[in-house]
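Posting this for the archive.
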Amino acid sequence: MIYKFKIISQESDNFHMEVQMDSNNTFYELHETIRNAMGYQTHQLASFFVSERYGKKLHEVSLVDAGDGINGLPNFTMFRTKISDLIQSNENYLLYTFDLFNNRSLNLELTGIFMEKNLKEPLVALNEGDAPVQILEDEFKAEESTIIQEDDLLHDFGVLEDYSQIFGEMEDF
């Protein structure tokens, strides 16, 4: 059985990708397919969220094993979870969060299930437009420079000949 996903980004209007996966492929294989097609680095964390049509998240499929599930829900990892374990119909949607710190995601919609076919390897059927960048460097550099400026302000005490000028006399214990 082959699942066909349409992938779009809210950050880039002209970006559009289509991926075809065998139902026995894992979420990790889907993650790797998307990451490789977009040229993303391997060291960044990511998660899939299985959701309903209107955005209610049902399950998280994470790259790392986070231990026990939350509120009695099972914990799913990309390496162990097959796509067919969580996706059975066109009613489920996926959110691929590739930047967990800034909550940036791609929307995956299951657009077709082909019953009589099998696929040995995942296939990127379409990849057009400008994919969103993996890391927002401009914002990171701006935050970093603000922190450095604050540190300079906080640590500029001038030349001190004696710490008692700041702290006063201290008693020995």
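The chain is about 20% helix and 30% strand. The chain has two domains: 2-132, 138-167.
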